[in-house]
Amino acid sequence: MAEYRQAHIPQRISFALLTIFASLTGCAKDQSLAPPVNSEQVIVRLKVPSELKAETMKVMYRSTLCTFTDHSAYGGPYQRDGYQHMDIEPAQQGRSDVYEAKLSKDGGGACQWRLSNVTFGVSYREPGRFGENVRFGAGGGVVVIFDDNASPRGGANIKVDGDLAIKESYYPWVDEGFIGGHKKDVSLLGEGYDYYRMYQALDARLVSFEPVLHSRFMVYSIGPKEKKKGNFVTFKYPDGSIEEVRRAKPDFRRLEAIRLAAEKK
Fold it and tell me: Are 176 and 222 in contact (CB under 8 A)?
């Protein structure tokens, strides 16, 4: 298991550092991050609605010098880039709704670490307001990759040149399930099947994310109480319409149409 230890980086940010596996080659090297004072920065900026909160950022650095031995599905050994994970709390800018973190492109140190990817996003500040024992489910996440490697959540399906500006609509989705025990959670429903938007931005120096929360247009789903052929999830949309389908998530385009029609009235 990897162990956490503290590292201090000249960015006005303190963060927890996850050391890489003990099987790294060249283990006599100091594997800590040491970004140069003049290291190029990537600014990650979030504009957070009042009902939401900024999640802890998960940052990964990679090294082609400090590698480690992994094994293929057939048991064959091969060398992989070393990596380090860290958590960074984005800082609120004054009393505004803007939160920001600065990431050094050059991680420095004997391993010559380089920024590889960052995972960040938003979640509900108080999910309990949707009912007793309601927890936050998923959604509102973003992954940005700064090199040609996949992130811990996979590769990017959107590639951009230069800086990256993301503005996405989200709807509150309250889901109640019974099979395997009663549970109720609230998620941020965005466009697409995945809960994380995946980007590759090799040259970005500014990544901005503005989630637009349409709080008045809530969708509910209620799962079946037993596994039985023909038992489907029931979706209740904000216009009063009901849909019983095999689909695992509400219809985002249907929600968009309901909202746009209501806003025209």
Answer: yes
pLDDT in tens, 120-138: 999 999 999 999 999 999 9
List the one residue out of 103, 124, 154, 101 whose CA is nearest residue 48: 124
Residue 44 lies in a domain: yes
Residues 207 and 209: their CA atoms lie apart, in Å, by 7
Displacement of CA 93 from its chain's centroid (Å): 21
Cβ-based neighbour number of residue 126 at 10 Å: 12
Q: 105 with 25: CB under 8 angstroms?
A: no
Which residue bears the tokens 């980007």? 199
Whether 235 maps to a domain, the answer reads no
pLDDT digits (tens, 9 = 90+) for 85-120: 999 999 999 999 999 999 999 998 889 999 999 999
Domain housing 96: 4-168+193-211
**Using DSSP, how many helices (H) and how many strands (E) does the chain show?**
1, 20
The amino acid that residue 191 corresponds to is E
Tokens of 208: 């901005």
66 lies in a domain? yes
Asked if residue 238 lies in contact with residue 219, where contact means CB atoms within 8 angstroms, the answer is yes
Give first-to-last CA distance, the chain, whole Å: 58
Question: Is residue 241, in this structure, part of any structural domain at all?
Answer: no
Q: How many domains in the chain? A: 1
